[in-house]
Write a structure and sequence with these properties.
By secondary structure, the protein is mostly helical. Helix 1 runs antiparallel to helix 3.
Length: 194
């Protein structure tokens, strides 16, 4: 008879053996998960996975908080799709807002991807419907407040400048050769006017 994963709602501990056992249990039930309502409960798959990932991310030795592959393997969750892991982590980090949105929504969601999309769309609609105060004056006079600003100087080397130009060309879909020609023509006009 196949072993089944425990569904106790224990708090995920910080010891490696507890995290490994939690990861292995999640790896076993990964293939049987399909219902968003079931996975977002307190002991549901996505909630448990998100909490485990949150703990592993906090314990990560990397500066960017990324969980190394060997840690995912050790905890038995490397076979769970990275997008699903990302969605579970997002759900746990935004759990209160997600549960409120699900409760207030008229339609049901079949996955966390659909929930994320609907929340993003609703957020865009609320920001569009807000009235912009740009260009309008206030009735109350504005008071001048002195604000101290910290001035930082960044040393720009030729290499940094070239890297920046190449990055912006790539991001904007511009031809680098055209940019070089434009720079050369601009320098020629500046030299003529000087």
């Amino acid at each position: 008879m196949a072993k089944t994963a425990k569904t106790d709602s224990k708090v995920v501990g910080t010891t490696i053996s507890q995290l490994v056992s939690e990861g292995k249990a999640l790896g076993k039930i990964w293939r049987t998960v399909n219902s968003l309502k079931a996975t977002t409960k307190a002991n549901g798959f996505d909630t448990r996975l998100g909490k485990l990932l949150q703990e592993l991310k906090a314990q990560s030795t990397r500066d960017d908080g990324q969980i190394p592959t060997h840690v995912l393997r050790t905890h038995g969750i490397q076979q769970i799709d990275r997008r699903r892991r990302s969605e579970a982590l997002w759900f746990v980090e935004n759990q209160v807002e997600c549960l409120e949105f699900i409760e207030n929504s008229k339609k049901g969601f079949t996955s966390l991807t659909a929930l994320q999309s609907a929340m993003r769309k609703a957020k865009k609609e609320t920001t569009k419907s807000e009235v912009s105060n740009v260009g309008q004056s206030d009735d109350a006079p504005k008071t001048d407040k002195s604000v101290e600003q910290e001035v930082t100087t960044v040393i720009v080397t030729r290499t940094k400048m070239v890297d920046t130009i190449l990055h912006h060309c790539k991001e904007s879909g511009l031809n680098v050769e055209d940019i070089i020609n434009d720079l050369q023509s601009r320098i020629a006009t500046q030299q003529k006017s000087a």
